[in-house]
Amino acid sequence: MSPHTVTCTIKPGSRKGPVVEVGDDGTLTLFVREPATEGRANTAAVALLAAHLGLPKSRVRLIAGRTSRLKRFTVDD
C-alpha cells in the first residue's frame, strides 16, 4: 500500500456539484456545493475525491493548499 499524490482544482460553492470532472490531460476539477469557509469545502472535497476513487474517506488526506483552490491530496490505495 503506497501513497499517491493527487492534485485537484476545487470549485467551492458550485451549483454544479458535487461532481468530478476529468480534463483531457487527466487533471481533476472537484465541484462542491459547500462554501470555502471554516474548511467546509475541504471536507467536502476529501469526501468527493474518495467517492470518485472508490475509497473510504480515511484513505484521502489534504496535504497542501488548505486556503487555495489548487490542492494536493495523499491517497492510500
UniProtKB/TrEMBL annotation:
Family classification? Belongs to the UPF0235 family.
Q: Which SMART domains match?
A: DUF167
Mind telling me which GO cellular component terms the entry cites?
Answer: cytoplasm
Tree of life domain: Bacteria
Q: Name one Pfam family in it.
A: DUF167
The name of this protein is Uncharacterized protein
State the organism named in the record. Answer: Tsukamurella pseudospumae
Stored SUPFAM superfamilies: YggU-like
